[in-house]
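Porin: structure, please.
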Amino acid sequence: MKRTLINMNVAAAILAMSAVATTATAAEFMDGKIKISGAAMQSWQSGIDVDGAAANAGDASSDSAFQRMRFALNINAQVSENVSVFAELAEEPNDWGNGSAAISQDLGWIQFDLPNNTGVRLGNVVSTTQNFIRYSDGAAVQSNPFVGNGLVDMITAEEGLWAYGSHTLSSGTNVTWDAVLATPDFFTDFSDGHGYNMGLRGTVNLESGLSFGAGTFKTNHDQASVAGKAAGSLIAVGDGDNYQFASTAVNARATHPLIVPGVDAFIWQADVQYKANNFLVHGLIGQAEDDYSWVGQGTGGSGLTSTAYVAQKSKMAFWSIEGKYDISNDFYVAARYAESENKSAGISGPNEATRLQLGAGYWMNDSTLFKAEYVKQEEDQFSGGGATDSSVAGGTEWDGLIVEASVTF
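Here you go.
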């Protein structure tokens, strides 16, 4: 059964964020030069109560509800043999807009295909250290066996240049790589001293199903250039999640550790994956550190961000392991466990955050997927977790059930 993302001419390890529908269902216009596809997602969530020292007291009690529906329209235009344009128009309340009804450009680029299966994109770049991505982004959810994303996802979108390649060696081994050069904003940033962000990733994929990956990312901003802004780069706080609390804004990143502000930061990650016909397991380990911290974080280890920064080292170590088993062509089960540790300067005491996700899915047909997930997250007092008030002993924990229906067309 063909359940793949829209083809963008590069290995899926690089392009998992590229689009959301199958090529088989894309509508074609102008003799195939323009293809339009899309996706829609709706979910229901049980009440998720933040127990313990909640950063927002209003999150301590909640009820079940339907979330706001997400949708996306994707436009692929083949301008010439080697030039194309991709644009995604989407409503994505968990990333930005805080639930507003605005339709926005969520991802887009001009693509230049080069010889030897390489290329360059100009426009939005996916800035990440992640490899073998299984990730939900607005309505683009079907590459992710879970409803939610990972506790330690290092990913965002920015403006810049994205070069990539995919090469199959004579041994049958496939090698992919990509590199980004970006300004530290999804919009526009001409502030003096903002610097450029740089990222590099690569994978080696053996015919046996065993794969190895690595990624690095560097931000380069003067302290003065980020004063008054929520972050230097958002890569270390994730790209939004599908779990919602009662009072905290849905796009506030409150389910992710908020430790590294991305001012003068360096992040690395290493991955190993084994994939068979009906089973895969994927493990990763990494570290993010910055020469700066948010004011108010420091010795308190607070996960609450501010818009002021101090020259004090912030550091986060993380790892995760996940597995997926296909019971049949239509049913699967999955599990993921992730852990982060706040190793910032001045931190002493309990400093870990963990997340357990147990998921299952049912494919009604090639384009329709139903998913269910149980999630439980625990945050120590000094974990830097976004739901925790570090000035109060005890930390927090929260759990809940979330179900999702998604369609691509």
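Notes: The domain at 41-66+140-408 is CATH 2.40.160 (Porin).
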